[in-house]
Write a structure and sequence with these properties.
By secondary structure, the chain is an alpha/beta fold. The protein is built from 11 helices and 12 strands. The chain folds into 3 domains: 109 residues, Cobalt-precorrin-4 Transmethylase, domain 1 (3-Layer(aba) Sandwich), CATH 3.40.1010.20; 100 residues, Rossmann fold, CATH 3.40.50.11270; 85 residues, Cobalt-precorrin-4 Transmethylase, domain 1, CATH 3.40.1010.20. Helix content is 39%, strand content 18%. Helix 1 crosses helix 11 and helix 7 runs parallel beside helix 8. Bound molecules: iron/sulfur cluster (SF4). Iron/sulfur cluster binds next to helix 1, helix 4 and helix 7.
């Protein structure tokens, strides 16, 4: 392979919600020792999950798999109220690592439900975040996955209060067209003042659009079940370049590169930076030389507090007197 120019998107990789969720499990392991039970993948990344498993985290699909009285961490994607109830019934101690931006959507759903609205939730069926949000008001919410779904929605009467919400990790452009179709059918429909697609999703998609203008191929590092990573591939392809989702450097196919000399690299919100470094290393080893630069489209400076039980435990540890002999 000839000399290659690698351009890294910025921002890329961990968002504040993922950072918080991963640190929550790490702190829980430090504070109370292994095992720490985690419901579902804490974030959608195989490497992160595997790493935490080696340190003593046990990932389960359902709270019924957690021993009675144990501690369970809820993942960044949020859970339905029935999951909280299940945890209470098993006397579990819950550390809720739901991203605050997902909690915001849950709170909107509760508010609309209490005010008698029917909600259209724009999102992907089966995604854990969507399952959790729909669980807040299962009888007052209809899922809309694609723009074509809008035509088959019911004829709501004009006095039916309607609102739409969205999953946090959708394609900004596709969601805009779904919202246009929805508002055309139901001009009186309401929505939260600030949209639900989160800052990290929009920033990473905007960065990829700019990256696509400068490169011939965009590699997105992320897991297949990571919604925001999959959207980055779509955004790059829509912008006219070849793009592939890779779990890590071992998944790069040399055939994708062909005659390209300018390669864009980005990573989904749940992919750790060490995977980006691994990809850079792969190119270094498989080419006659590389230059690496970064294209920063916006500076991110967002962070969230750790969940309260972890903050409390850390505060107790901090004031504990040192052990005397
Ligand atoms: S992608 Fe957005 S909503 Fe999801 S964890 Fe990150 S900041 Fe929160």
């Amino acid at each position: 392979m000839t000399e290659l120019e690698l351009i890294l998107a910025a921002p890329r990789g961990y968002c504040a919600g993922v950072d918080r969720a991963v640190e929550t499990v790490e702190q829980a392991l430090k504070l109370q020792g292994a095992p720490v039970y985690v419901r579902k993948q804490i974030v959608h990344n195989l490497h992160v999950v595997a790493d935490l498993e080696t340190r003593g985290a046990i990932f389960v699909d359902d709270v019924s798999e957690v021993p009675k009285g144990a501690t369970v961490v809820f993942s960044a994607h949020g859970v339905a109220p029935t999951v909280h109830t299940g945890a209470v019934q098993r006397s579990l101690t819950v550390i809720d690592a739901t991203c605050p931006l997902v909690t915001k959507v849950h709170n909107e759903a509760k508010r609309y439900d209490q005010a008698g609205y029917h909600m259209l939730l724009i999102g992907h069926a089966e995604h854990e975040e969507v399952v959790g949000t729909m669980g807040e008001a299962p009888d007052s919410m209809t899922l809309v996955e694609h723009v074509d779904d809008v035509a088959s929605l019911p004829e709501y009467p004009a006095d039916q209060r309607l609102a739409y919400l969205t999953q946090t990790t959708l394609s900004v452009d596709e969601t805009r067209s779904i919202i246009e179709a929805i508002t055309q059918r139901y001009p009186w429909i309401e929505s939260p003042e600030k949209g639900d697609i989160c800052y990290a999703t929009s920033n990473r998609q905007a960065a990829v659009k700019e990256l696509a203008k400068l490169t011939e191929l965009v590699l997105v590092i992320g897991s297949v079940n990571s919604s925001n990573s999959c959207r980055l591939v779509e955004v790059a392809r829509d912008a006219g370049v070849d793009s592939y989702l890779i779990e890590d450097a071992t998944k790069i196919d040399r055939n994708w590169i062909g005659d390209s000399t300018k390669i864009g690299i980005t990573s989904g919100a749940s992919a750790p930076e060490r995977l980006v470094l691994g990809v850079i290393e792969w190119f270094r080893e498989h080419s006659d030389g590389i230059t690496v630069s970064e294209l920063e489209t916006v500076h991110e400076d967002v962070s969230f507090h750790l969940p309260r039980p972890i903050r409390r435990a850390l505060a107790v540890v901090a004031v504990d007197p040192p052990a005397s002999n």
